[in-house]
Protein 1
Amino acid sequence: MSSNEPLIKDCGTLYIVGTPIGNLKDVSFRVLRTLKEVDLIAAEDTRHTRKLLSHYDIHTPLTSFYEYNQEKKAPYLIKKIREGANIALVSKAGMPGISDPGYHLIKKAVEADIQIIPVPGPCALVVALVASGLPADRFVFEGFLGRTRKERINKLKTLSEEKRTIVIYESPHRILKILPEIKQTLGDRRIALARELTKKFEEIMRGRVSDVEKIFDQKKPQKPRGEFTLIIEGAK
Ligand code: SAM
């Protein structure tokens, strides 16, 4: 059996489709073709995905699949695939499953012996890492560190001996809090803070934590805006 044949006869396929992290042109021919040819697209944010689809004149039906309906919706999507539907899973940005709800459906599809075909696209952590100038041959990805200071400090403490480059996702309203927390737990290490990658206001701030803090100081009273990915050098 070739790897592209369905595992269950007459069963559909779940395509895990990577979509742009900002720039709508960062999309492959294969991604567009998959989105055009599947029966249904399960999207984390249907309004957001609709913009991508209308940009490329794609009219495939959309259904929502996000954090708060994933438990209820996954069995319905699995049933549809088992009945023969081909479904594409997309998230708001990047690769589904990386710090977004995709994982739940992928796990259920694996358990149901459903054929899964990944159709790769950009992923913010990889894009930020390669542009950081910090070693990218070995790294750890920690996702979001947490909402409370206690959660973040505890996670950072567990990373204090980590020798590999550390990659973190952070929201704009927590970025000014996390910089002093990093200095306190890991020291004034070299970092790269990538903002709005692939978008109009793309910016990559490099230097020690204190240098990046100064950049934000100079921008005051403007608050940090946009999407941030933080790369931290590993322990010496
Ligand atoms: N699945 C996505 C991926 O493959 O990159 C990540 C989803 S996660 C919910 C969203 C986080 O990714 C943001 O809070 C930010 O930390 C990071 N991110 C997404 N787009 C970005 C961009 N254009 N520039 C910098 N970071 C970005």
Note: The two ends are 49 Å apart (CA to CA).
Protein 2
Amino acid sequence: MVRNRNYRIAVLPGDGTGPEVVREALKALNTVAQKESFKVEEVPFDLGGDRYLRTGEILPESVLAELKTFDAILLGAIGHPDVKPGILEKGLLLELRFQLDQYINLRPVILYPGVDTPLKDKGPEDIDFVVVRENTEGLYAGSGGFLRKGTPHEVAIQESVNTRMGVERCLRFAFDFCRNRNARKKLTLCGKTNVLTYAFDLWQRVFHQLAEEYPDIQTDYAHVDATCMWMVKNPEWFDVIVTDNMFGDIITDLGAMIQGGMGIAAGGNINPEGVSMFEPIGGSAPKYTGQNIINPMAAIAAAQMMLEHLGEKVAAGRIESAIRKVVVQDLKNLSAGQMGYSTSEVGDLVADHIIRGA
Ligand code: IPM
Ligand code: MN
């Protein structure tokens, strides 16, 4: 059977520097599409802080319904300085993750040669792992509420929701992903079984149960605080880490720092049976907006992950090689304003390497 290689991509540039970095990601995408003879149809969506301030709309039902018809979504950034924190994050980013049931947040932590890490004496051979973060449950589920709000006896409750189904599908994804990633085949569950004795009891039981189906995978466990410690001290111990939503959020910011910063860190919000969404994880960086100095590499890496997900492995590999070449050969630094090139020039360099790649 001939595979359909026309991809319909919903593009959500979003807020702040989102549009600038997405433009460069699309440059890489279109360049590699031409090289590998597949087609990309990009449909832009105006969602984010500006639309909200203009119209009061965050994610209209009709837009959500339309997004469900795409092959994938490429997102720039969500977050606007004039909008109260939480509104866009919950109303748009988390809403998309939940409504599209993107139950995995896949976040590679890979240090490319030539990139500085703050970890002394650690290099690319030490920092090469992937975090599989549960993306629809836990503390993010929005369960809880206030009692006696605004009084001295106020109670605020925020509960972590962990369903057997949700935990199992996340762990199963992690086992499968670990099996296919490389020869190391080591999966670490990151939790807090010594304190969160209900939530992580469930996680641990299901983890051990599934492990029996994956005898080729070495399993390990670390508490989340110890995970932070090892990520700094012995990152080479990790291959794939699986964890809940909140812990995954926290440890992937640490991960982004050890791989060279937000300029390079990308992630995929994945629904293996539905529509997935790929994003640079750095945020909207309002202070750099419109200056053409932000690093687009994370957005380009998000496009790479998207192609990987769509089954265009060769094309994804081409983008990755180009990223590797640009960070080794061209960029002085990964930080905004210190790259030695502008945002669009970095995108051009990546495109050039894709064109010239063997
Ligand atoms: C992330 C972000 C989001 C999260 C925020 C913006 C809601 O920090 O993608 O890691 O907490 O998941
Ligand atoms: Mn985060």
Note: The radius of gyration is 20 Å.
